[in-house]
Design a protein that fits this description.
mainly alpha
C-alpha cells in the first residue's frame, strides 16, 4: 500500500510539472487570457516573384498569356481577377494544386485548368513563387 501511495505522489508531481510547460509555451500566449496568439496575417506573398515569373513562363503563359492578361477561351485574365484577389496565398495554392475541371460549375472557359497548370513536377514552394509573381500583376 505504501508503494502505491508513493507511485501516486510521483505520478501527480509528474503531471503537475508537465502542466507547467516551458517558457516557450508561455511566450506564445497572451498575458490577459492565456489563449494562444494567432500569427499576424502577412500582406507580402510567401514566394519569390522573380523565380515565379520564370516558372509562370514555363507552365502558365500558354493559357494565361504574357503578363497574365489571359487568352480568350483558354485562361482568365489574372491582372484584374477578383477571384484571385479574394484568396490568400494558402487558398490560392490549394486552388492551383487542384485545378478546375470543365465539369466544375465555376468553370466559365469550358477548358480544363489542370492541377499545377499541367506541370505535376512543380513543388509547393515553386507554386508559391508563381503566386508571388501573379500578385505583382494585380492592378
Amino acid at each position: 500500500m505504501k508503494q502505491m501511495k508513493q507511485l501516486l505522489v510521483i505520478f501527480c508531481l509528474t503531471m503537475v510539472l508537465a502542466a507547467c510547460g516551458s517558457s516557450e509555451t508561455v511566450s506564445s500566449t497572451t498575458a490577459e487570457n492565456n489563449a494562444p496568439t494567432a500569427p499576424s496575417p502577412s500582406t507580402e506573398p510567401a514566394g519569390d516573384a522573380a523565380n515565379g515569373e520564370a516558372l509562370f513562363g514555363q507552365s502558365c503563359i500558354a493559357c494565361h498569356g504574357e503578363g497574365g492578361v489571359g487568352i480568350e477561351g483558354l485562361g482568365k485574365n489574372m491582372t484584374t481577377s477578383e477571384f484571385i484577389r479574394g484568396m490568400n496565398d494558402d487558398e490560392f495554392l490549394a486552388f492551383v494544386k487542384t485545378g478546375r475541371p470543365v465539369g466544375d460549375p465555376a468553370n466559365t472557359t469550358g477548358i480544363d485548368m489542370p492541377p499545377k497548370g499541367g506541370n505535376p513536377a512543380l513543388t509547393d514552394a515553386q507554386l508559391l513563387d508563381i503566386i508571388a509573381y501573379i500578385r505583382t500583376l494585380q492592378e
